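Risk register update: the risk of archive-format incompatibility is retired. Evidence:
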Amino acid sequence: MAYQINAAECAGCGGCEADCPNRAIRMKGDAYYIDPAKCTECKGFFPVAQCVQACVSDCISLA
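Archived output:
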């Protein structure tokens, strides 16, 4: 499983992209996208996924 960004709710601030330790988040078109092949949900490294913690819009959830 991987996290996903709800583009309709995303503020587009880029905080999640900057905080992702796996560089799994990138801009795709005019919205941010989480690459499920790179997303590890930060398991084993952080108690909370870094993208979720950085998100000001609360638009990131598990797929």
